[in-house]
Amino acid sequence: MILTVAHTKGGVGKSTLAWHLAHALIQDERKVTIVDLDFQQTLFFINSLNENNIIEVKQPQTGDELIELFEKYEDDEYIIVDVGGFDNDINRIAISWADSIVVPISNSATEVLGFKTFEAILEEIDNPFVYVVLNNIHPLTKNFDLITEAIGDNPNIKLQNSIIRNRKVYKETLGFGKSIFDTKDTEAQNEIKRLKDELISNK
User: Fold this and answer.
1) CA distance 125 to 133
2) How many CA atoms lie within 13 A of 13 on its CB side?
3) Could you list the residue range(s) of the whole structural domain that residue 89 is in?
4) Which of 79, 123, 140, 163 is 20 to 30 A from 96 in CA distance terms?
5) Nearest to 202 by CA among 133, 112, 120
6) CA 86 to CA 9: how far, in whole Å?
């Protein structure tokens, strides 16, 4: 299964979400590969800090290399793709091949506007499996009208029920090459587990 975490706007939490989702799958003893397409190489460097190296992070440099990687993956394997915050050919390939396009978004006006721009790109690529994830949400926030109105009645975009709240542990663990599953924060672990289960059940 190919899960492509994508958004043309930077700073929405794509890399952080991709990293913890990958480790949630590892908890289920799944075979997981991360593909880091972000020019900042965030996940590549984070993974290099992890002495266990339980996840392989690949960095294809061309569209052909990425397609070759996708063509070789097995049915029981999960590929988590972290797409950089820009629009180019290799990122579009990652989106077009995805079984699920995971779009993290908070309820800020700038991110919602950025999502509408990204939505136009998704329509050009014509991959209907788009799943919006409420990400980096303040613990007390319960009103998401801004996001639901932005999605509207587009039948190809589905807002997930899972909510990833704004918790320091998500970013703090990355600095040590760790994930939330290396901590005792069960609330954060359960958030990511619920999202993982929901994304898998979509297929």
Assistant:
1) 20
2) 23
3) 2-201
4) 163
5) 133
6) 7
